[in-house]
Amino acid sequence: LDVYPAEPDGNGDYFLNSLNPWAEDLRSLKNIILTPHIGGSTEEAQSAIGIEVSEALVRYVNEGTTLGAVNMPEVKLRSLTVEEPNHVRVVYIHHNVPGVLRKGKNPLCHTVILADSNGSVNEILSDHNVDKQTTDSRGEVAYLMADISNVNTHEIKDLYESLESLSSRIMTRVLY
Fold first, then answer.
1. What counts of helices (H) and strands (E) characterise the chain?
2. Model confidence over 7-18: pLDDT tens digits?
């Protein structure tokens, strides 16, 4: 049972006769479970939500993963490992417009797509081997995640600055 004329409003001993005159009768029944109407308001639910949100933030910070996000496209790649030296994960969050990933002729409409005067994402990444790549979009925002190999540490700053210079950019992260 989870809807009452007078709802419990805080943590503690919810179902007392002072809240509803029949609360004690309900509490004595063996075949009923009493919960607050808003299940997310329980101590256990709040604890679980806190853990879930903090784990999602750690995954985003460490891996760039956005699974479960409500305001971002959901993207995930397997984690980089120590067995993959000189690998970099590029996270490129950008405006969801045509031509951001490549520059060239669109075979479907026979027009030239000019992504940006500074090039395109794939042109910037083309000096490296793209081992894994995924992209997704939600509304006006798109999210690209790519793992590239054979990246020397002195190239990371140039890679980051090249992506940052694109007009489609919302945010760039390079994880290594």
1. 4, 6
2. 665 555 666 667
